[in-house]
Design brief:
The protein is an alpha/beta fold. About 45% of the residues lie in helices and about 10% in strands. It is built from seven helices and five strands; from the N terminus they run βαβααβαβααβα. A five-stranded parallel β-sheet has the order 2-3-1-4-5, sandwiched between helices. The longest helix has 22 residues. It is globular.
């Protein structure tokens, strides 16, 4: 299956969709939109992974397995422990391949706004004080910077791996391409799916 772009038609209405990209690229926003457009179940991987005080939940992998038992879903492709599992169940992978400066601007604004507003995230967690970007080597801003290229490496491994023959991979570079894909191929795939059940 060739790598598809924002104008390329999807070969079938997606039923099990993963969205991948660097932190701050818009994975959750797009996965949620895909689920709504196609009538799929959605869960945010972060909500399954993070327990109180940012501790990993012991039930994480079991919860992911239960979610994947659903016939049709969309979610983010993240967390090393479950990436192979997610990929083995998916039929479509959407790669948000945004420039590094775009991602860093987004994650900086999002992190700052969440901290200022004391927004509750998952299981009572809130963003740590902004000064921790200088003291915590795993701070989200630092993580986004150093992990940016890794997403592309993972996707290229998928394209050359055992799932390449059955997996549709869509590469979207920048918000304009995301919007173009949403309004075009994704919407038309949803319409085809609706027609098939009439």
């Amino acid at each position: 299956m060739p790598l598809l772009g924002p104008r390329d038609e999807l070969p079938h209405p997606p039923r099990r969709v993963l969205v991948t990209g660097t932190s701050g690229s818009g994975k959750s926003t797009l996965a949620r939109h895909v689920a709504g457009c196609l009538g799929l179940s959605y869960v945010e991987m972060d909500s399954l992974f993070h327990g109180p005080q940012w501790t990993p939940r012991a039930e994480f992998e079991a919860d992911v397995r239960r979610f994947l038992e659903r016939p049709a879903w969309a979610t983010e492709w993240q967390y090393r422990a479950v990436r192979p599992l997610l990929l083995s169940h998916a039929d479509t992978l959407v790669w948000l391949d945004h420039p590094k400066h775009v991602v860093m601007r987004r994650v900086a604004v999002r992190t700052t706004m969440r901290r200022v507003r004391r927004a509750e995230l998952w299981n009572g967690n809130v963003e740590p004080p902004l000064r921790t970007v200088f003291t915590d080597p795993e701070h989200l801003l630092r993580w986004a910077w150093k992990s940016h290229r890794r997403t592309g490496e993972r996707v290229r491994a998928v394209l050359g791996g055992e799932h390449a023959h059955r997996l549709v991979v869509v590469r979207l570079r920048g918000q304009r391409e995301v919007d173009q894909w949403r309004r075009g191929p994704l919407r038309r795939a949803a319409e085809r799916g609706e027609e098939s059940v009439r």
